[in-house]
Amino acid sequence: MPPGRLAVAVACVASAMLLVEIIVTRLFSVLFYYHLSFLPFRW
Questions:
Q1: What's the distance, Cα to Cα, between the start and end of the chain in Å?
Q2: DSSP readout, the chain?
Q3: What pTM was estimated for this model as a whole?
Q4: Is the pLDDT of residue 8 over 80?
């Protein structure tokens, strides 16, 4: 595999993994009501 194609492949895999991590983090924050701890609490 030429070096240019290898760099593109590594960049694609790295960006896909970052996207998966962000989506899973957002999903878990909604599922476990973690986002409510950052909202201002007012009566």
A1: 62
A2: --HHHHHHHHHHHHHHHHHHHHHHHHHHHHHTTGGGGGS----
A3: 0.66
A4: yes
Structure tokens at 26: 């957002």
Residue 33, phi-psi category: left (phi > 0), alpha (psi -120 to 50), beta (remainder): left
Q: How far apart are CA 29 and CA 22, in angstroms?
A: 11
Tell me the pLDDT tens digit for each residue of 17-35: 999 999 988 888 888 777 6
Give CA 17 to chain center in angstroms. Answer: 8
Please report, for residues 2, 11, 31, 33, 40, the alpha-carbon distance to residue 37 in angstroms, rounded to integers and kept in the order given: 49, 35, 13, 8, 8
CB of 34 within 8 A of CB of 28? yes
